Amino acid sequence: MEFTKFETISIKKHPEIDENWVQSRIAEDPSILGLGDVVLKDKERPQPRAGRLDLLLQEVESNRRYEVEVQLGPTDESHIIRTIEYWDIERRRFPQYEHTAVIVAEDITSRFLNVISLFNGMIPLVAIQMKALKSGNSVGLVFTTVVDQMALGLVEEDEEVQET
What we know:
Strand content: 35-45%
Number of strands: 7
Radius of gyration: 18 Å
Oligomer: single chain
Structural class: alpha/beta
Distance between the termini: 65 Å
Number of helices: 4
Largest sheet: 7 strands, mixed
Order of helices and strands: EHEEEHEHEEH
Shape: globular
């Protein structure tokens, strides 16, 4: 078996690779995000009185949709707010689906990891960190979920069981 050395590169600083390239790789194979069996529903989806949602994904066997915002470099306030805003617009426009906000960034900083974790109790939110690895002339992407959607317990699970 041949050993290949990979070099971590910054997509934000790369002269040829940009956010559109990342979106296209995800659109070609949405499963690389690790969200399960999902398909691309839309790319650069216009939002009423807002910008454009980078990617809209949907689970194949359910009515769950993922509103995905891609950010190069470290997370910042505007991308987190945009992620939540697009999630909110989509869930209001299409209430027949379950919606999850997803932010994908090269570096999910500890400051924003804390903020995202605070939101996660009320907003179904997933944070995925991406790394670009280069070997020769090839570049690959690795996605790691750092904050997953919080599964809320059922009322019955929280109540004490008393014998009659």
